[in-house]
Amino acid sequence: MTNTLHDALFAARAGADAPFLYLPGRDDLSRADFARLSARYATTLGALGLKPGDRLALQVEKSAEALALYAACIAAGVVFLPLNTAYTPAEIGYFLTDAEPALAICDPAAEPALRPLADAAGARLMTLDSAGGGSFPAAAEGAAERFAPVPRGADDLAALLYTSGTTGRSKGAMLTHGNLLSNARALAAEWRFTDADVLLHALPIFHAHGLFVACNVVALTGGAMIFLPKFAPGPVLQALPHATAMMGVPTFYTRLLAEPRFDRAAAAHMRLFVSGSAPLLAETHVAFEARTGHRILERYGMTETGMNSSNPYEGERRAGTVGFPLPGVELRVVNPDTGTPLPDGEIGMIEVKGPNVFAGYWRMPEKTAEEFHADGFFVTGDLGRVDGDGYVHIVGRQKDLVISGGFNVYPKEVELVLDGLPGVLESAVVGVPHPDFGEAVLGLVVPEPGQAPAPETLQQEAARQLANYKRPKRLILLEELPRNTMGKVQKAALRERFAGLFTG
Ligand code: AMP
Asked: Would you say the pTM of this structure is higher than 0.90?
């Protein structure tokens, strides 16, 4: 047995001197440099006693070294467990106890707070800083620069990624070597990646989007990445003339559009802009094309499944949709109560099956069983529909569905109406407790810059387009919507904030 994922992504190949990572302010790394660095790290993992199947937890700033640790884990058969840099020590404590990593690596500044937690969980704790220093790199000084990859099959675990867990405990999604490789291959082919590509990488690498979608596709196809520590309009605008493709969350694109310097000339060297992780407003899609001539390619995926669907590279990229199921991925929409497949056009639960779908939740066999059907389909928790042309539309998470007076209200439908009203930039619709209706529809509206639409007027306008039970009972203007680092609107936070509005 070989280690197919490692060989496909990271093995030395012809063109080893080709650039792999452009690192602002630091020396670039070629494919060969990166292979040497990750081989040293893989050797060091072995020297520290890590065995195939052991977990390595990592909560550090984005760096070439952090990415090399991921490659080292793939080579050594160690399960990579990246953690959001925003997690507090208390949250990290839970992940360490749940995943029982043999080794945890954190930023030196977090070490004092994490030390007792790592000790309690029986994990060795080492450090890595954003400049590539720390106790782990120090231990790897002088380690062998060649490492024979540990044989791994398609079903062996490659990574453990915890879901954001807005309801209940966060769950560890077990992703296999086969999951990651099949998805990277499907995306590389769909999006036409080659060794001539330079990806502008401004996403975090603790999440599936920045780590698997972005890095795996580029590693697989032999191109390079401009590896920015985070998204900021200035550095992104500087990098664009040297890049051919960019992957981002919708906020990247709205923030670029807010820059007058971002125009057709700034995007002239690019061949592809991809968006995902949260819904891209149709308005953003249209404004982006008007400004740059590029149609953003929107795709849909999740931690548990990698990517499920994508708008076409050639062919119509339809705003407000997430395109067609990827080759090899089966996608169906079913009645959430009965599990019966629904005809095109009807809204229901999106379920998927394919080589991209994860192996289950870490140490949660009951939870895993609940989310899979006997025929292998995974219940995504996303509501959506497939239109007559086969494009998939996402309506939102089932847990965000509002049930008002016994009627289902899909927040997205109301948000689309609100977004279309004059003076409205964007909106979020949530359900909050109501004494008569159980839940009431609440609209949170962000006005266009410099505008102050009257909530009553907006409410009247919306009422003209929406059935009575869908109309927001109240509209509140907000300066901005709360979002996490992946650009997702934090509806749970909004529900909490306004929970007492009608009952309090
Ligand atoms: P995560 O597991 O953090 O990647 O979150 C996955 C969830 O993000 C999905 O289940 C969807 O609810 C949402 N999502 C991802 N991509 C899109 C998209 N293009 N449009 C709408 N929602 C999306």
From this structure: yes
